[in-house]
Amino acid sequence: MNYDFIIIGAGIVGLSTAWQLQKSKEKARILLLEKESSPARHQTGHNSGVIHAGVYYEPGSLKARFCREGASATYVFCRDHGITCRRTGKLIVATSEVESSRLQQLFQRCRENGLEPELLSSARLRELEPAIRGSAAILVRETGIVDYAAICREMLRQFSRRGGHYLPDTEVTGITEHSDSICVHSGADSFSSRKLAVCAGLMADRLARMQNLDDGFRIVPYRGEYYRLRPELDGLIRHLIYPVPDPALPFLGVHLTLMHDGTVTVGPNAVQGWKREGYGHLNFDLRDTLDMMTFPGFWKATARHLHHGLRETRNSLWKKAYLAEVRKYCPQLASADLLPHPAGVRAQAVMRDGTMLHDFLIRQTARSLHVCNAPSPAATSAIPIGRHICSLLTS
Length: 395
Ligand SMILES: Cc1cc2nc3c(=O)[nH]c(=O)nc-3n(C[C@H](O)[C@H](O)[C@H](O)COP(=O)(O)OP(=O)(O)OC[C@H]3O[C@@H](n4cnc5c(N)ncnc54)[C@H](O)[C@@H]3O)c2cc1C
Fold this sequence. Notes:
The chain has 395 residues and is of the alpha+beta class. It has helices at residues 12-24, 62-81, 97-112, 122-128, 148-161, 204-209, 286-293, 296-304, 306-317, 319-327, 382-394, and strands at residues 2-8, 30-33, 50-51, 85-86, 90-94, 118-121, 136-140, 144-146, 165-167, 174-177, 182-186, 189-198, 217-229, 240-243, 255-258, 264-267, 271-272, 338-351, 361-364, 368-373. Helix 1 crosses helix 11 (382-394). The site of flavin-adenine dinucleotide has 41 residues, from helix 1 and strand 18.
């Protein structure tokens, strides 16, 4: 069957691309392929649900711009399609001297990124959030929460309504590019099109390898483990509560998140994963592990962040140590307050020299485009990322 465009992956990046492409090219024949039986089964359906305002990112970078635009576009999408979202605001709380000086830098960065943060004293923080303690904090009002899986379902509905063709349960196993077309294989089935966009999240490097585009990077899975607060504590906080992050790492630290359903989650941490799409505690996959261990960048990244990695592993294995991270800013919490909650797994592109890539990575051939790294806040930024992919596909 011939198409104008094929998109692989029904996470939020693939869906945003498919929805916007079908909307702008009404007559185009577009096929969206997904290996699972429903959309948003991996990173998009296992995240914190935060609409990030764009606090942390290098001013002027694509990541900063996409996040700001993405947050606004997400609020508009939710309003237009009746999806519940809340602009809760977020507090970044400093609990030590080092963090206080980093907080000042973050405050400056917020302003350079076009936000209107408010610097709070310890007393003002306590007034706003009686359960939270810190030497100072930044209030970012633009941050909010949403259910990204609900956004995906709506994007899929819009895409199909406009004539887009969606095939779930179809795992792509090969890609062959010709001078006049590109062919996507799934077992014995083949689909051909003029252009292809690959938005495969945790499998991005494997799909890139099908076209020899995986040179120099590998996806390394990092588990993000959560707890949730017991239901009696659902009203404990009114804002999202974040620690001051370590600038060397692409993770934001264990935070308290008001979820769209009114519950409060605690997390995520960032521990080594041994299975890319494994959500249980003891998941292991030989192929995923060998892929990682045979890549020199994995060992370099592990060595570089050894101290952090060991601390996260200890916190993962020992609930009391995990709790200690949260008690730095919410001292009233006790072990019995933390109930089990499903984990997520991040797709982190690691380069051959051990650098964890903070930014988006896109690689292209004449007829294909691979999204090789779409780290947080890619759910927030999905609408401008999708728009960017559409413009690259149609230029
Ligand atoms: C724990 C955690 C917390 C996060 N918190 C936030 C947050 O609060 N806010 C935020 O903005 N971002 C957050 N993120 C980041 C965000 O969730 C991701 O950046 C985003 O969901 C990436 O979307 P994606 O479409 O690229 O990947 P995915 O959602 O993983 O989708 C990829 C899709 O490709 C499919 N696929 C893979 N291989 C094949 C194949 N061979 N054939 C067919 N289909 C295939 C998969 O089945 C999957 O459906 C978080 C991520 C994690 C893991």
